[in-house]
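Morning run. Coffee first, then this:
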Amino acid sequence: MTERIAIDCALREAYLDGELSAVESAAFDRHVAACAVCKRELERDLRLRSDLRGGLRRYKADDALRNRILAHLPAEPPKLRRREWSNRREWLSMAVAACFGAVLAGSASFYTLRQPNEDLWAEAILKTHLRATLSGHVLDVASSDRHTVKPWFSGKTSVAPVVVDLASAGYPLLGGRLDIPETEPLPVLVYRAGPHLVSVTVRPASGDRGVTVANRDGFSIAEWREHGFAFSVVSDADANELGAFQAAFSHALRTLP
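And here it is:
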């Protein structure tokens, strides 16, 4: 018998921190729709998070710190006596052999590990889409002008997204927001497909990869790579609609000036 998880206000922080599964998040969405307290608190927390993200600054260690660290390191490693060196060499040989064996043993599981990581990413972007639509805070910058949306992300994330205008294809640009699906703030472009909202998370990536469209907990997720980016699209539109959106997006990318 499958255990049913009670959905109540106590899960609000877990929901906000992305600790719930996609199914639990959807159930919590329904709870919040009927709970004025949760809706008010989530809206407040999400706006606060957005404000904090917008003010994030990155600092890089300077040369002075590097020099202080180097100053505490010995100029040369201590010399070892012949017997000590022999023992050390034997130990290093065994360590290398052990590491090599571990690599061989682990290589068989490499491909099985890669797919779960992709699943975790799909769940992460689905959760950010759900949080945004639930809170009503879908946009940090509201504009149908791509020349307004693109520069808004400058200084807020290390990714400078490419923004395309799809109004002529029937998918108007609504604006964008900043999300943190995993550890880094990433740009999310927001479009409309009929009555459906479409969230496009943009990451830098090398090489091209064809589109894949999957269904997860009633939501469609499309992913592909081109133009130096990986695009991950989430919407409650069906797979056919999302496939048409992806085709229009790719066409617009290829025709950018």
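The CA atoms of residues 208 and 226 lie 5 Å apart. Good start to the day.
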